[in-house]
Write a structure and sequence with these properties.
Layout: E1 6-8, E2 14-15, E3 19-20, E4 27-30, E5 36-38, E6 43-46, E7 55-63, E8 66-74, E9 81-85, E10 97-98, E11 100-104, E12 110-111, E13 117-120, E14 126-128, E15 133-136, E16 144-148, E17 151-153
Antiparallel strand pairs: 1-6, 2-3, 4-7, 5-6, 7-8, 9-11, 10-15, 11-12, 13-16, 14-15, 16-17
């Protein structure tokens, strides 16, 4: 699921010998309500989640002392835009420049914890670290690119 999406679960309560029992109340819970919430009818909703990783949460159906689980996988919000700042930076010899990248989803919500890939157009002129720190090597103009899953800015 993606944040905001829902999935309806159903529970069948059976006695020994696979005899279906009706009218037995089922209680629904989530192992992590910050990621997935489930209501009394068994409808699970992926909660608003901006983190960087796929999350797995157990949805538990319990009838008396018997329970079973299903796994809900919640994908992070996709990145819709990446903005690199500052737009232009002049660096003197033996000086470094720190750049930053801001990632947002389609609703302009700030997305945190994503590992941006940094590159330069000419590593003979300057290098850039995994954190966006630009280190000049020689005099000249270089373009720095920050990218994440196909979304980039220079």
């Amino acid at each position: 699921l993606v944040p905001g999406a829902q999935h309806a679960f159903a529970a069948a309560v059976t006695a020994a010998g696979a005899v279906a029992l009706s009218g037995v109340p089922v209680t629904w819970t989530s192992s992590d309500t910050t990621i997935v919430r489930v209501n009394a009818e068994g409808v699970a909703t992926a909660v608003f989640y901006v983190g960087p990783a796929v999350r797995s949460v157990a949805v538990i159906a319990a009838a008396g002392s018997v329970a079973d689980t299903a796994t809900v996988v919640v994908n992070p919000l996709p990145v819709a835009s990446l903005v690199l700042s500052p737009d232009t930076q002049t660096v003197k010899p033996n000086q470094a420049a720190q750049l930053s990248a801001v990632l947002r989803d389609a609703s302009a919500l700030f997305l945190e914890g994503r590992a941006v890939v940094w590159t330069t157009s000419d590593t003979a002129l300057a290098t850039v670290s995994a954190t966006g720190l630009v280190l000049p090597r020689r005099v000249g103009a270089v373009t720095v690119v920050a990218s994440f899953e196909g979304v980039a800015d220079t």
